[in-house]
Design brief:
Elements lengths: L1 H8 L2 H26 L3 H22 L4 H25 L4 H26 L9 H4 L7 H20 L1 H9 L1 H6 L4 H23 L4 H13 L5 H25 L5 H19 L5 H8 L1
């Protein structure tokens, strides 16, 4: 058993998968900190579910399982879903949560219909498309993982450079405008980062659960600090650890989907933080009360 594990993890492709999972989780945690503070968690969930029909449409058009083409399709439908939510809220009496629920149902249902059509009417070149639902590290090749790793690194760099502007725009947009920070522009940049992390993460984590990777690590980090800088880096570490552990288990134990394993790992970290976090942990609060 031990020799088998050493042999497996010495494989170059497995090492790339683990590195990609680490960077994806870290980037998700950092970006998710701002998503959480802006209260856009449900919108990120809608983006994730809306990515599936984009993947399917791109495959139907090009009849090729090319990662860049599929991700472009996912990005387009994710942005369409976001705009559709805004249009519904602006031009109707429907509230935000209901609008998001409608868009999630419509886009994800359409994606499942398209995926079923592809599986019934395409040849062997459609194999692996269903991994976009729950994610599957074993289905990734070196080129796919390199794309995920490099894209995650770029998103982390952009987040780091825009950190101060994001912080001011979120906590005090009026002050930000007063000192000349283009709040609308940086809101757009954050939206781009959310779409980016959703799109590059769906094959590894899946459209159903990628939003959880954006939300759970920052929630866990909130139980340890009130400082946004510390929270963002801590959320990144939690996300990276979750990605590594989940991808390792998915790779080592055959037929385990990657997405649920990564999210379960993140959830375990969250529950530990919920109990033992030094800021708001349940046990610590109980000791103080006693």
């Amino acid at each position: 058993m031990w020799d088998e594990a050493i042999s497996l993890f010495s494989n170059a492709n497995v090492q790339w998968v683990l590195m990609g999972s680490l960077l994806l989780g870290f980037a998700s945690g950092m970006i998710g900190s701002f998503v959480l503070l802006k209260k856009q968690s449900l919108i990120s969930d809608a983006m994730a579910h809306a990515a599936l029909p984009g993947v399917c449409i791109a495959f139907i058009i090009f009849q090729e399982k090319s990662m860049p083409l599929l991700l472009i399709g996912a990005a387009i439908t994710s942005l369409l879903a976001t705009q559709a939510i805004q249009v519904i809220i602006k031009h109707s009496r429907i509230k935000t949560d209901a609008a998001i629920g409608i868009i999630i149902s419509v886009f994800f249902g359409f994606g499942i219909v398209l995926l079923t059509y592809i599986q019934q009417n395409s040849g062997g070149n459609q194999a692996g498309l269903n991994s976009f639902i729950f994610g599957q590290a074993a289905s990734l090749v070196k080129g796919d993982v390199q794309l995920i790793a490099i894209s995650s690194l770029l998103l982390m760099i952009v987040t780091t450079f825009c950190f101060k502007e994001f912080k001011i725009s979120i906590f005090d947009p009026s002050f930000a405008r007063g000192v000349g920070i283009p709040v609308g522009f940086f809101n757009g940049v954050l939206l781009f980062l959310i779409v980016g992390i959703v799109v590059i993460g769906i094959q590894m984590v899946g459209v159903v659960l990628i939003a959880a990777l954006l939300i759970t690590p920052p929630l866990a980090a909130r139980y340890w600090t009130e400082n946004l800088s510390v929270m963002a880096w801590l959320a990144g570490i939690f996300g990276g650890v979750s990605g590594m552990v989940g991808a390792s288990m998915s790779t080592f134990i055959s037929d385990l989907p990657t997405g649920p394993m990564i999210v379960l790992s993140a959830s375990l970290i969250f529950f530990i933080s919920l109990l033992f976090g030094k800021r708001k942990g349940i046990l610590l609060k109980g000791v103080k009360v006693a």
